[in-house]
Amino acid sequence: MTTPTAVVHRDSSALAKATAARIVTRLVDAQSAQGSASIVLTGGGIGIAVLTELARAPARDALDWRHLDVWWGDERFLPAGDSERNETQARAALLDHVGVAPERVHPMPASDGRDGADPVYAAERYAAELARAAQPESHAPVPAFDVCLLGIGPDAHVASLFPEQPALYEDGRSVVGVRGAPKPPPTRLSLTFPAIRAAREVWLLASGESKADAVRLALSGAGPTQVPAAGAYGRSRTLFLLDADAAARLPPGFTAPGQM
Ligand SMILES: O=C1O[C@H](COP(=O)(O)O)[C@@H](O)[C@H](O)[C@H]1O
Question: Are residues 148 and 161 in contact, defined by beta-carbon separation less than 8 angstroms?
Answer without folding.
Answer: no
